[in-house]
Specification:
This protein is an alpha/beta fold. It contains twelve helices and twelve strands. A seven-stranded mixed sheet has the order 2-8-7-6-5-3-4, with helices on both faces. It has a three-stranded antiparallel sheet with strand order 9-12-11. The termini are far apart. The structure holds pyridoxal-5'-phosphate.
Length: 394
């Protein structure tokens, strides 16, 4: 038999996510406390779950239109108009299987081989992979702790070339928890408009803001109608990660292309989940649920940052959004991947090395505080004991 031919080169540039690797290791560790996963520890609110069950009984078990149920698209458009100030109608919205697919299909709709795409560094792992899948060239915009990890318009502008096609924007940010100021967003919009560059705006943590921070959508800025793609999800806000529903909103010119891509890839988001999300958008109880969850995460955020800063070798700034602390651990003198592995082995606590989010994340560890105060306390006590060994050795 002849040697099998090479597999496609498309996936060769993608390295398995650093987050996954740690997860696999964590799963083999008994009694592990997990600060690694990035999802709410809350279960989906029962009234949303019930709507899912009802959808089965009512026979919503067939394919849906590629872009999603019309009622759901309309409810999402209404939410974007009233909460985000984005002037869209139902046909500007496509329901996706989570923000992950929304990000990938957005990239595929915009990026040609050789195009440059600006991505936050450190930034969520999907951006770089999506650009590689599209054959584009990811260009990191280094975010600095001294600048609160903000993606500053001047830094973005410096990296724009004639090949730049789009910019990934993520506020509140995973992994840093940074919430961009309105002036940052406006400045980035100006860079985009001056150069005819698209912005894929990942807003999945929009509701997770603290200390009076406010979330702004770049698509609400006049002139961005043709350039902004808003990507969002029900995963985090409604505690529905497993239901796999998100959405994109953009000009019809872009959305219509994305619907074609969706038709030939995933076909449609799960019908039952779509009906559950519709209930989530319509039921006034959801607001109370989200507010309660965010209030609780605020408490955990403050607890985690205060406790982390008492551990020798760690310096953590108070993040104003999402549910992560991105702690500087440079003083400990290990590469972040080695430090995360050391902590997992010695303390049975899972964290994510900052380097998994890009080269500028080196020297940091990401801690997710979407877990109980009891776990946070126990996990950080364990880390303190383990790290003492490193400090003593130094
Ligand atoms: C910044 C960011 N965007 C998108 C996603 C993907 O969310 P979804 O479950 O909707 O695919 C995540 C998940 O961790 C995320 O952190």
């Amino acid at each position: 038999m002849k040697k099998p031919k090479e597999l496609s080169s498309r996936t060769k540039a993608i390295t398995p996510s650093g987050i996954r690797r740690l997860f696999d290791l964590a799963q083999k560790t008994s009694g592990v406390i997990n600060f690694g996963i990035g999802e709410p520890d809350y279960d989906t609110p029962p009234f949303i779950g019930e709507a899912g069950k009802r959808a089965v009984d009512l026979g919503y078990t067939h394919y849906t239109p590629n872009a999603g149920f019309p009622e759901l698209r309309e409810a999402i458009a209404e939410k974007l108009r009233t909460e985000n100030g984005i002037e869209v109608a139902a046909d500007n919205v496509m329901v996706t299987t989570g923000a992950t697919t929304g990000l990938l299909l957005s990239t595929l709709a915009l990026v040609d081989p050789g195009d440059e795409v600006l991505i936050p560094d450190p930034g969520f792992v999907v951006y770089e992979a999506a650009v590689h899948i599209a054959g584009g060239r990811p260009v990191g915009v280094p975010l600095r702790e001294e600048e609160d990890f903000r993606m500053l318009p001047e830094r973005v502008n410096e990296l724009v070339t004639p090949r730049t096609k789009c910019i990934f924007l993520n506020t509140p940010s995973n992994p840093t928890g940074t919430v961009l100021e309105f002036s940052d967003i406006k400045g980035i919009a100006e860079v985009a408009m001056d150069n005819g560059i698209y912005v894929i705006s990942d807003e999945v943590y929009e509701k997770f803001v603290y200390d009076g921070a406010k979330h702004y959508s770049i698509a609400s800025i006049p002139g961005m109608e043709e350039l902004a793609i808003t990507v969002n999800s029900f995963s985090k806000t409604f505690a529905m990660c497993g239901w796999r529903v998100g959405y994109v909103a953009a000009s019809k010119r872009i959305v219509d292309e994305m619907i074609k891509l969706q038709q030939f890839t995933v076909a449609n988001a799960p019908s039952i989940s779509q009906m559950a999300c519709l209930e989530g958008l319509r039921n006034p109880e959801t607001k109370k649920f989200v507010e309660g969850m965010v209030m609780e995460y605020d408490r955990r955020r403050r607890f985690m940052v205060e406790r982390l800063n008492k551990i020798p070798g760690f310096k953590a700034k108070m993040p104003r959004g999402a549910f992560y602390v991105f702690a500087n651990a440079r003083e400990l003198g290990l590469r972040s991947a080695d430090l995360a592995e050391f902590i997992l082995r010695e303390a049975a606590v899972a964290t994510v090395p900052g380097s998994a989010f890009g080269p500028s994340g080196e020297g940091y560890l990401r801690f997710c505080y979407a877990t109980s105060i009891k776990n946070i306390e126990e996990g950080l006590n364990r880390i303190e004991r383990a790290v003492e060994k490193l400090v003593r050795k130094a």
